[in-house]
From TrEMBL, chains A, B:
Sorted UniProt keywords: DNA-binding, Transcription, Transcription regulation
Keyword Flavoprotein: no
Pfam families the UniProt entry points to: MarR
A molecular function (GO) term: DNA-binding transcription factor activity
HTH marR-type domain mapped to chain residues: 1-126
Classification via InterPro entries: HTH_MarR-typ, WH-like_DNA-bd_sf, WH_DNA-bd_sf
Highest taxon of the lineage: Bacteria
Entry-linked SUPFAM superfamilies: Winged helix' DNA-binding domain
Matches recorded under SMART domains: HTH_MARR
Protein name: MarR family transcriptional regulator
Length: 145, 145
């Protein structure tokens, strides 16, 4: 599991570098893709970045057309960040090879086996999310005594 | 799977920041832990870092006692980098919480189910390793036409 973790990090760095993005920028784009449109404050919380850094990050991503800011249709006082990068050809092109290889791997398992694996990955996801929360809380309490 | 990837990256960043390390330094430490003692050249290839950056990285890690350089007992002309950080209390302390939570998750599965999941993770690992290789090869051919 830890070996997979290290490779995942290296893979993400490879994708970021292929797309000409900073690792942290790419990571935020990926969080946006998963969480859907969210506010800058929510993105800041999820990445652990300071508010000022998050603003600069959104500026950079908006400039290259990876995200766009818009008023929240449900609450006009809020501005949300909408991911746009999934439509970009260079992004789908970069992921295509991994996608194909993973589908091929999945096809060697039965439906029941895949259901079990997916279930496990979902739970591992929740465990990791809790751990990230604890880690951030611990390092914040250290910096502000 | 991609959600898990993003969280893994965030978790690793959290660990690195808790330990007061740069993300890239921490990643290299984790690669060393997995691959065992290797030469600076091999580490450079696995991380995709330039030779000079790898030397500076090893200097930093040696200074804080996370790795040490020694002559390869099998080939005196080579210098290998030996990971030392697993013995450090702050490292095992940081991982302890994730370790406990993952063991608890694993205990809810039967031995056969765990064997299947482990098998899948091992294969996903190989797929990712190949993808990293291709990504790096592609971005290198772009920078040196």
């Amino acid at each position: 599991m830890r070996g997979l973790g290290t490779r995942t990090v290296l893979y993400q760095q490879g994708v970021a570098s292929t797309l000409g993005l900073y690792n942290q920028d790419y990571l935020s784009v990926d969080i946006l893709r998963e969480k859907g449109p969210i506010t800058a404050g929510e993105l800041s919380k999820l990445t652990g970045l300071a508010t000022g850094s998050t603003t600069a990050l959104i500026d950079r991503l908006e400039k290259i057309g990876y995200v766009r800011r818009q008023n929240d249709p449900h609450d006009r006082r809020k501005v949300i960040i909408v991911p746009e990068y999934e439509h970009k050809a260079e992004v789908s092109h970069t992921y295509h090879s991994l996608h194909t290889a993973m589908l091929e791997l999945a096809s060697s398992y039965t439906d029941e086996e895949l259901a079990l694996i997916t279930n496990f990955l979902g739970k591992a996801n929740i465990v990791l999310e809790e751990q990230i929360y604890h880690l951030n809380a611990a390092s914040q309490s250290k910096t502000s005594p």
